[in-house]
C-alpha cells in the first residue's frame, strides 16, 4: 500500500526540524509583526521599519541560497547564473508595480516615467497584462522557469558539466545584464524600476504592507525548506545524489540523468524568481546590476559558507554573510569585497563543509571524548575488579589459613 503524500511529507523531516520551523514561524508571523506594529518606538523590543525590511531582504536571499543548494549541493551542478533568475522574477513583478503607479508618477502619465522620458507613446507588446497581479505572479514563476528549462535542455543533453557549465551560466547572466542595460529593451535601462507606490491599492511603504511582505518571505522560506527536504529524502533525491556522485554508473543501470537534473534546475530557477518578486517591493528598486556575475558568485559563497548539501547550511550561510555585509557596508564599505574574498578562501581551505560541517565535527569530537571518558572509567572499574579484588581475597584466605593452623586439632594432626 502506497503511503499518502501528506504522511511522507511529514516523515521527511525529523521532529526537531518541525519544531524549529514552528518556532521560526511564530517569531516571523507573530513576534515581528507585534514588535513592529503594536510596540511604540521607545520600547526596547520595538522592531524598526528598517529592520523589518532588512530581515525581509535577507529571507529572500535565504530562499535563493536554498534553491542554489538544491542544484549544487544535491545535484552537483555549480551554477553561476542564479542571479539572472532572481532578477527575472524581480523584473516580472516590478512591471506590475510600475503599472500600479498610474498617474502618480513624475510626469502624471499612464506610461511609466522612464518611457515618458524616452518619448515612448505606448507600452511594448510584452507589457500587455502587466497591470494584473495574477499575470505578474505567473510571469514571476514562468519566465525564470522557461529560461532555465530551455538552457538546461540543451546544456544537459550535451552533457556539459563541471567548470564548463559554470562558465556558460556566468556568460548567460552577463549577456542578460548587458541586454537589460539598454534603454530600447523597455525595462528602464541602467536605472531599472523604482519609485513604487502600491500593491493592490495598498501603500507599499505602510507598516502593514511591510509586515505582510516580511511574513510572505518567511512563508516562502518555510515552504522551500519543506519541499527541499521532501525531495532530497525521496527516491528522486537519492537518484539525484547518485547522479552527482557517479553519473556514468546511474546511466549504466538504466536512469536518464537529463530528466532529474533538468527538473531540479528548473525548480531552482523558479524558486529564485519567487524570491526576486518578494525582494523588489521590500527594497524599492530593481535594476540590471542584480544580474551581475558578482552577485551570482556571492550566492555560491553563501552556500559554501553554510555548507552545501545541507538545507539549513544554505540558510545559515545566507544569513551570516548578508548580516556581515549589512554591518560592513555601513561602517567599512570599502573593505567588504576584501572580507568576502577572505571568507571564501578560508571556507575553501579550512571549512570545506561550511559552518554546518564544522558544527558536526565539533559534536562528533565531543561525543568521542565523552565516549573515551566513559570507556576509561569502565576500564578503571574492571581493573579494580580484576587486579585489586583477588589480592584482597588472597590476603583473607591467608589469614584464615593461619588461624586454622593455630587450632588444637590442627596441631595434633600435624604432630
What does this structure look like?
- There is one protein chain.
- By secondary structure, the protein is mostly helical.
- The chain contains 16 helices and 4 strands.
- A hairpin with a 2-residue loop joins strand 2 and strand 3.
- Helix 4 packs antiparallel against helix 6.
- It is globular and about 90 Å long.
- The termini are far apart.
Short description:
This protein has 415 residues and is mainly alpha-helical. The protein has helices at 5-11, 15-38, 49-72, 82-101, 113-117, 133-157, 163-181, 207-233, 235-245, 247-252, 257-283, 293-306, 311-331, 336-350, 354-405, 408-414; strands spanning 193-194, 198-199, 202-203, 285-286.
List the helices and strands and how they pair.
Blueprint: H1 5-11, H2 15-38, H3 49-72, H4 82-101, H5 113-117, H6 133-157, H7 163-181, E1 193-194, E2 198-199, E3 202-203, H8 207-233, H9 235-245, H10 247-252, H11 257-283, E4 285-286, H12 293-306, H13 311-331, H14 336-350, H15 354-405, H16 408-414
Antiparallel strand pairs: 1-4, 2-3
Helix pairs in contact: 2-8, 3-8, 3-11, 3-12, 3-13, 4-6, 4-11, 6-11, 8-9, 8-11, 12-13, 12-14, 12-15
**Which structural class matches the secondary elements?**
mainly alpha
**Which outline best applies?**
globular
Q: Which strand order do you get reading across the main beta sheet?
A: 1-4
Total strands: the figure is 4
**Radius of gyration using CA atoms only:** 31 Å
Uncertain stretches of 5 or more adjacent residues: 408-415
The average pLDDT is: 88
Instruction: Determine the number of helices (DSSP H or I, runs of at least 4 residues).
Output: 16
Helix content: over 70%
Q: Would you list the SSEs in sequence order as H and E?
A: HHHHHHHEEEHHHHEHHHHH
**Percentage of β-strand residues:** under 5%
What is the distance, rounded to the nearest whole angstrom, between the alpha carbons of the first and last residues? 90 Å
Amino acid at each position: 500500500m502506497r503511503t499518502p503524500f501528506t504522511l511522507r511529507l511529514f516523515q521527511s523531516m525529523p521532529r526537531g526540524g518541525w519544531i524549529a520551523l514552528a518556532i521560526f514561524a511564530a517569531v516571523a508571523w507573530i513576534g515581528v509583526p507585534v514588535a513592529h506594529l503594536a510596540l511604540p518606538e521607545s520600547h526596547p523590543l520595538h522592531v524598526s521599519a528598517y529592520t523589518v525590511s532588512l530581515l525581509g531582504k535577507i529571507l529572500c536571499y535565504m530562499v535563493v541560497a536554498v534553491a542554489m543548494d538544491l542544484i549544487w549541493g544535491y545535484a552537483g551542478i555549480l551554477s553561476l547564473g542564479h542571479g539572472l533568475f532572481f532578477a527575472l522574477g524581480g523584473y516580472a513583478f516590478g512591471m506590475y508595480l510600475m503599472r500600479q503607479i498610474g498617474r502618480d508618477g513624475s510626469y502624471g502619465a499612464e506610461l511609466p516615467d522612464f518611457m515618458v522620458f524616452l518619448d515612448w507613446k505606448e507600452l511594448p507588446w510584452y507589457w500587455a497584462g502587466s497591470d494584473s497581479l495574477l499575470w505578474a505572479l505567473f510571469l514571476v514563476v514562468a519566465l525564470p522557469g522557461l529560461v532555465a528549462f530551455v538552457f538546461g535542455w540543451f546544456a544537459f543533453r550535451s552533457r556539459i558539466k563541471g567548470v564548463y557549465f559554470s562558465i556558460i551560466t556566468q556568460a548567460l547572466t552577463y549577456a542578460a545584464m548587458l541586454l537589460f542595460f539598454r534603454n530600447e529593451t523597455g525595462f528602464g535601462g541602467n536605472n531599472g524600476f523604482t519609485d513604487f507606490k502600491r500593491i493592490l491599492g495598498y501603500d507599499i511603504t505602510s507598516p502593514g504592507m511591510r509586515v505582510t511582505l516580511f511574513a510572505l518571505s518567511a512563508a516562502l522560506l518555510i515552504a522551500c525548506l519543506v519541499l527541499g527536504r521532501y525531495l532530497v529524502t525521496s527516491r528522486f533525491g537519492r537518484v539525484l545524489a547518485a547522479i552527482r556522485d557517479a553519473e556514468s554508473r546511474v546511466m549504466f543501470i538504466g536512469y536518464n540523468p537529463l530528466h532529474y537534473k533538468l527538473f531540479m534546475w528548473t525548480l531552482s530557477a523558479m524558486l529564485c524568481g519567487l524570491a526576486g518578486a518578494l525582494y523588489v517591493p521590500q527594497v524599492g528598486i530593481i535594476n540590471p546590476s542584480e544580474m551581475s556575475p558578482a552577485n551570482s558568485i556571492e550566492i555560491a559563497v553563501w552556500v559554501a559558507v553554510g555548507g552545501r548539501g545541507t538545507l539549513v547550511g544554505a540558510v545559515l550561510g545566507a544569513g551570516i554573510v548578508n548580516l556581515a555585509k549589512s554591518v560592513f557596508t555601513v561602517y567599512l564599505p570599502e573593505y567588504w569585497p576584501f572580507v568576502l574574498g577572505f571568507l571564501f578562501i578560508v571556507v575553501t581551505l579550512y571549512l570545506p563543509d561550511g559552518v554546518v560541517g564544522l558544527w558536526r565535527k565539533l559534536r562528533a569530537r565531543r561525543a568521542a571524548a565523552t565516549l573515551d571518558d566513559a570507556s576509561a572509567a569502565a576500564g578503571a572499574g574492571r581493573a579494580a575488579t580484576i587486579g585489586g579484588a583477588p589480592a584482597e581475597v588472597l590476603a583473607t584466605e591467608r589469614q584464615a589459613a593461619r588461624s586454622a593452623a593455630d587450632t588444637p586439632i590442627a596441631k595434633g594432626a600435624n604432630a
